[in-house]
Amino acid sequence: MVSLDPITGVLGRKAAAHFLRRVTFGASKQQIDTFAGYSIDQAVSAVLVESNIPSPPKDKKTGATWLNPKPGLSNSGEEDLRDFFKSWVLESMAKSGSNAVEKLTFFLHTHFTTIQSVVDQSSALYYQYLLLKKYTFGNLKELAEKICKDNAMLILLDGSLNVSGRPNENFAREFFELYTIGRGKEIGAGNYTNYTESDIREAARVLSGWAYDSNYTTIDASTGVPSGKLKLNSSKLADKHDPGVKTFSSAFQNKSIAPSALSGSYATEAAATKEITELVEMIFAQPETARFFCRKLYRFYIFYKISEEVEENIIKPLAENLVANNFQIKPLVEKLFKSKHFFDQDNTEVNDNARGALIKSPLDISIGMLKFFKVEMPSDANLTNYYGAYGELLSSLRDQGMDYYEPLDVAGYDAYHEAPNYNRNWISANFLARRYEFAALAIKGIGMDGQPPLFKIDVMKYITDPVNVPNPSDATQLAKDVIELLLPEAITEERFNYFLNILLDNLSTINWEHEWENYISSKNDMGIRTQLEDFFNAVLQSPEYQLL
Asked: What does the pLDDT read at residue 502?
């Protein structure tokens, strides 16, 4: 039976590699070896550590940040600034070590999705990222309430257009369907099991009267992050907010929400704000809201299929854990990451979360290579090279099927929401070819034509580090160590020999020993470097490496 019971004993290398691949964007051999000696409690404690938010990104044009709080006339255009922001996030991922924060933040981004071309404001995107990162270990219910007033979300889903008398239902609809409770099966006209069309209309009334703060001077008191603002008249009353009673369907126990205080015919600022709190409380009081979030978490970290057994013995207990901990995210992921089910140790006939059962996202592919090989990326001390390198990475992600911060619709990237294939959507003939291409280019060196590479996987640097390969002259052991670390599951002897023969250039292991000895004495690595590059290229371009 599938089980959330925690595993016991030390992890060992294979489990440690699996753990770090799933909960982070990859790891080096040294990190894997360290975690191999940890118990699960030690491992989870080590990855779930709050990280400091680095200094804001800099504008290449000025050499200083434009986020103070927004760009001025001296700054680059918004298209460039959005790329600078995204590059800065990629750097945080690449430098995240064995910390799970960046991947959790990315998960929240896939849940509360935004689209840069619609938002069109780098400042709004940056502050939304800060908000998500602040809540990676925090309270999901609080985050959902903050999202209702987030500037990027107010732009994306027309929240600023939602006013009393002319309600705009876009955000309310997606808040129910995508961000909180989910639709459920349609059981009648306008009735989606978990809510009705009338609930959307009433929620839009609750959410009316808010505006995007283009100056970013409205600061949320609890997070310190700029937020949207209520539209107020000269008397500081919410004159664009619907002051009437909003009554919801039986899906929400026919609850009514209304301003707690009126002045004349308008709600006070505090009363209008409180209505959002009541709306969120009402939605999160329904058991399906916690389950909906836990399913998305499960598909992100474990497997894309949810069987009846998993629903009963994994999703429901996780949801109960989330509710029991007042919607705190950290206890939830702790329980999941420690479980036998996460490590395939629950003795099920069908291992739904088997290692290698997920397809890596383009981020897992690209950032994972950078982290495994400890690739040195340019720092922002040289902004031309810095943004050049991460710009190449952004371009590669797009070629691989992830236009970062530009999903096709408000539901987000297809791989995280589109049934029935989910993460299988990462693979097409073109996308797969571009994944393979990234590995080849990274080994060769990625940069501008005619210029030294901006970054490169240096296979000789990896092989000559005794931490990685104690005895490089032993070709068989070298190949075993690399394959064990890079591929999620054991491969057949025939498949292993395929990779080994690429390393050996179809010669003998004795011949490799001689080649290695010649390199040591001559310091000329031309011959063995070519064989090593071919070998690593074959492993990184293998179907097995595409799996998580």
From this structure: 98
